[in-house]
Specification:
Rossmann fold, alpha/beta, 7 helices, binds NADP nicotinamide-adenine-dinucleotide phosphate, 17% strand, 238 residues
Length: 238
């Protein structure tokens, strides 16, 4: 559903068709925000659009690896809402396997989606924010595996280390222009990214997607003088 309200803050959420991105959208679904929900899967985007029936919400289909599509999403956000205030980069893939048999295609895909996609959305959003003379926030979802290795997850862990380096570097580069780049490092979250069966009791002690969404809302609420570069959040029992 389309709408326009200049007083609201405009937020782009990637990975909107996934567990964490979907929860972020629910948490931001109030009168304070215009939301641009980005995903690839058309059916899931359509379902999402049916659940958020209000002005100030649009969906956009884009592959985060495709620079033209990323730029088009940012342009459509600005065209629709006259502003861009924040991006939550939640799109990601988790491909595991023993390293000696791990394909180069899967390694490249992991780095492409998790790092290059995050970089592309961050870069073009920051450019837009600076061009418009706006303060802005980029929130990148790294992982606990961004500070420690993961047996069978060399590509994923490399990508999530890179997301932290990317976030901190962009923050240092653009902080004087009023851009804050923050990074969330979640432990296990109960989404489809976890391979356990949906009814496995172990899912109950994981973080829930809403826990990450609440943290996003908190980071978005910080006064402009405050930033948090990295925040680790993990299940108390795991
Ligand atoms: N779940 C966890 O335990 C956990 C822990 C730490 C960090 N994380 C991170 O949290 C983020 C969200 O994960 P999640 O748990 O919500 O997983 P999820 O439910 O599998 O969602 C992943 C999302 O990424 C999107 N995506 C994948 N490839 C894409 C591409 N090329 N272009 C655009 N979108 C793409 C998917 O969109 P489509 O389905 O539309 O393709 C989907 O919306 C990821 O970065 C993940 O690494 C997750």
């Amino acid at each position: 559903m389309e709408g326009n309200n200049k007083k609201r803050r405009t937020v782009i959420v990637t990975g909107a068709t996934g567990g964490i991105g979907g929860a972020v959208i629910k948490a931001l679904d109030n009168e304070s925000f215009n939301i641009v929900a980005v995903g690839r899967n058309k059916d899931r985007l359509r379902k999402l659009a049916k659940t958020v029936k209000r002005a100030g919400f649009i969906t956009a289909q884009a592959d985060v690896r495709n620079e033209e599509e990323v730029i088009a999403v940012i342009k459509s956000a600005v065209r629709e809402f006259n502003s861009l205030d924040a991006v939550v980069n939640s799109a990601g893939v988790f491909i595991t396997g023993d390293s000696l048999n791990f394909s180069t295609a899967d390694f490249n895909k992991t780095l492409d989606v998790n790092v290059r996609g995050t970089w592309l959305f961050s870069k073009h959003a920051i450019k837009e924010m600076i061009d418009e003379g706006r303060q802005g926030i980029i929130i990148n979802i790294s992982s606990g595996a961004g500070t420690h290795g993961l047996a069978g997850g060399a590509a994923y862990s490399s990508s999530k280390f890179a997301v932290i380096g990317l976030s901190e570097s962009l923050d240092m580069e653009f902080r004087e222009k009023g851009i804050r780049v923050m990074c969330i490092l979640p432990g296990k979250v109960n989404t489809s990214m976890q391979s356990l069966p949906p009814d496995d009791p172990a899912r109950k002690i994981m973080l829930q997607p809403e826990d990450i969404a609440d943290l996003v809302v908190y980071l978005m609420s910080l006064p402009e003088r405050v930033t948090i570069n990295r925040v680790s959040i993990r299940p108390a029992l795991l």
